[in-house]
Here is the input.
Amino acid sequence: MRLVGLTGGIATGKSTVARRLAERGFPIVDADVVAREVVAPGQPALDDIARRFPGVVRADGTLDRKALGARIFADPAERAALNAITHPRIREAVLARSLALAEAGVPLAIYDSPLLIENRLHEGLDGVILVVAPAEVQRERLMARDALGAAEADARIAAQLPLAEKRRFATWVIDNAGPLTATLAQVDHLAGTLNALASG
Here is the structure.
């Protein structure tokens, strides 16, 4: 099975591209969904997070993402500590899902991960799709989407590798600066390329 990475900067529109690829018939292995599952109540990762980051687990046993986010985005060392807890478990779960798709005879799947390149996960893939948008568009979308102040939005953007750096590793680039119709047209064109790759 071919496995193609999908990534982008925060608030560049990666989810929009992922949805369109799913509509075109490509299974999506979503690292964000897996990441939420590995920190669900009862999971070992949540216990580790509670010990390392006191006060970020609510009384009902669920993770307070906003409280945790405030800590990790303000301090690279705290972010690294969280990644050390969650990333190995996310990789294990993603591998299991990818193997299940391969065993089911799926010719090509999409691995959707915001930190694909930062974590060097792109190195074993059959190509990388990068979704880009101008920095000011990212910032505006992020502030509106997550109800963040400018400084908080900038900290989240700064926590990721700059898009200019990510472009060096991209096989295909989707420019999501313009209207939705233009973005979807790019994805539809890419779908044809991916289908050729799947059958090749």
